[in-house]
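Thread: quick sanity check before group meeting

JM: Hey all, I'm pulling together slides for Thursday and realized we never actually wrote out the predicted structure for the chain we discussed last week. Dropping the sequence here so it's in one place. If anyone has concerns about the input, flag it before I start.
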Amino acid sequence: MSNANIQEKRILTTGNYACAEGAITAGCLYFAGYPITPSSEIAAYMSRRLPQVNGTFVQMEDELASITSCFGASYAGKKAMTATSGPGLSLMAESIGLGVMLEAPTVIVTIMRGGPSTGQPTNASQSDVYQTRYASHGDYEIIVLAPSTVQEMYDLTIRAFNLSEKYRIPVIVASDGILGQMMEVVNIHSDIELVERKKPQVPPEKYKPFEAFDDDLVPGMALAGTEYSFYVTGLTHDIEGNPEMTPEAAEVLIERLCEKIRKARPQINDWEEKYLDDADIVLLAYGINARGVPEVVEQAHQKGYKVGLVRLKSLWPFPDELMERIGQMGVSKVIVCEMNNGMIIREVQRFRHLFTVSGITIPTTIPFSPKFIFEKLMKEV
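JM (edit): ok, ran it. Output follows.
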C-alpha cells in the first residue's frame, strides 16, 4: 500500500500505530529497535509496513545498537527512527550525544512508563522529561515534542522528521504508555509538507562535512558511498571532520551545535493557548496530562474566574519567549500540571520575577482528572 493510497483515510487506531504510520508518511525507510513495553507495537507495526514501501526493519540485539544503526542509515541517506521506553532511552543516552555531534538526522520515540528502574511497564508517566533533555553528557541542545492525542502521535512524528532533517539533529517524540495504547480516530491526511536535509553546497573537492555557509548554521550533508569523501567522528572536530582537541576548537564547535537550535526556537517551539489575553491565572500542562485541562478552564470561566490555558506541544528547547509574553500580559500566577515530582515547573520557575509559580506535580501513573485539577485550582484563586 503506497502513501498516496492512505493519505485521506480516517482510521481508528492506537497512538503507537499512529506514530508508526506518521513515520511512514514522513518518508521513514529505516527502523531499528528492540522490544520494550509499552512501545513494542511501534516496532511490530514498522516490521509489517516498511517492506510495503521498500524500507528496512531490523530488530537489533539491544537499544545501543538500535540507535547507532539509525545514524548509519541516516548517513546512507535514509530517514531513520527507533522507539523505546525509559530504560531503553537510558541505554541510548551516550549515543544521543553522538548523534548531536555527528549531526545525524534521526527520530527517537520514547513511550514513557513509571519508574525508576523497571517501575510500572504498563502504565504511563511524565517522569522522563529531564531524561529526554539531559540524557547524554556534555553541552548540547535537543528538540523534544510532546503529543497529547492519537492524532498528534501521527502529526508530531511527521514534524519530528521535518525538524530532524532541517536542523540535522536527533529529535525525540516523548509520549506515554496510555497515549501509546489508547485508540482514537486519526486522519491520515495529505496536507503535509515534508522537509529534506540540506545537500552539499560545494563540489566534492571543496566539501568539508561540518562547514556551515548559511545563517541557520546547518552544514550541507553528503551521503556515504557517493563522490563526496568525508570523515566524521564523535570527538571534537574541525569543519573537515578531523579530531581537534584544542579549547578553541571545542568552543567553536559546541557553540555552533547549540546555537543552531537556540536561534531556531521561534520556528521549533509550539503550543496551544486559550483565554490568555485577560487571564489572571494560567494552567500549563503537556502530553496525556493536558487532556483534562480544557474542561477545567471552561468550568472556571463559567464561574467567573479568569483562567488561561497553555498546552506545550514542544518541551525542548523550552519556550522562554512564551513565558516572557505571559509575564508581560499581567498574569499573576502559572500553575504547572505534570505527572512527576516537578520538572517542567523548574523551567517555569526561572520566570518567577514575572509571575508566581505553583504546581500540581505528583509522580503518579494516572493522568489528573478534571475534577482533581479544578479542586486544586480553587485553592489557588
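AS: nice. The chain has 14 helices and 14 strands. The first strand starts at residue 9 and ends at 14.
JM: adding both to the slides.
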